[in-house]
Amino acid sequence: MLKIMKTCIIIPNYNGNHFLEKCMLALENQSKHDFSILFVDNDSKDESIKSIKSYMEKEPERVLLIENEENYGFAKAVNQGILFAKEAGARYALLLNNDTEVDPFFVEKLVEFMEEREAKGEKVFALSSKMVKMHDPRLMDDAGDELCVLGFPFQRGLEDSEKNWNTPEEVFSACAGAALYSIDALEKTGLFDEKHFAYLEDVDISFRAQLYGYKIYFCPKAVCKHVGSGTSGGKYSNFKVELSARNSVFLLYKNFPLFLKVLNFIPFLLGFCIKAIYFQKKGYGKAYRKGLRTGFRERKTMKQADFRGIPLSRYLRIEARLIRNCFVYLEERKRRKRLKL
């Protein structure tokens, strides 16, 4: 019988057996063990189930497995985990990719940061960890995500020196590859949108949290090594580009009220054109265009955020941030180009 503790670590898995040993070893070496581990397997065809069951035999009170009969994607898998954790009485859901290796103080520092903020009366939705490259931990992978008014989500600090990212600060979105979420807050925002399947679902739910007045922080003391695209197979693929394009349309349609859609029509259009040219050069133009067509065709099937009662000042703060993030995005691009010279 699983003993759910204050924090439930939810690890979605699909054919990730080759990652599990390193991931689990890091969790076994945590400074504190007041957490349970819930694997949600999306019908893996490798040896994942066998490996997970071996961990369950070692720690039957702390490790559990939900086995799906098909690949439901990231969003539904983590929702299954969150609902299980909620029913069992957990306060926090820590979403963790299987291709990660966390620092010994990872869980402790995330929970400590969250509780400190909550004690101050803040409405905190999520904490994004300090994700560094698995192949070179001196380099950043993600310090929380941002969104600009062109409709581009982007990773903060990507490929920068990890030494430059040690300051806690508010971010637009937590990266769900290694992030702590308040289960109470998730009750208010709703869970991850399962129609996304995978990609941008974390930015989508974070946008909704921003609209509802929650804060999201980057917690630099919680360090995590990350392979990146370990399940989907690399930085770009037709599958990833198509789904990301479709979900980018869903993201904008669901979270912007009509007046902001009208206000931002030109920036949105410009953003789609820039991405179309970029992916055409990369050899994924067809996949990107297909994703956009699907997104526009299916957008009205998506459930929009509840815009009732949201003060105008909050919309304006979010809009100002998205405009400012265009310049942040450009600076990030310039920095990465300089690194390649």
UniProtKB/TrEMBL annotation:
Q: CDD domains per the record?
A: GT_2_like_c
Give the Glycosyltransferase 2-like domain ranges: 8-188
The molecular function GO annotations come to: glycosyltransferase activity
Which Pfam families does UniProt cross-reference here?
A: Glycos_transf_2 (PF00535)
Q: Which UniProt keywords apply?
A: Glycosyltransferase, Membrane, Transferase, Transmembrane, Transmembrane helix
- Residues crossing the lipid bilayer are 258-279
Q: Is Cell inner membrane one of the keywords? A: no
Q: In which pathway does it act?
A: Cell wall biogenesis; cell wall polysaccharide biosynthesis
Q: Would you say which domain of life the source belongs to?
A: Bacteria
Please state which protein family the record places this protein in: Belongs to the glycosyltransferase 2 family.
Q: What protein is this chain from? A: Glycosyltransferase 2-like domain-containing protein
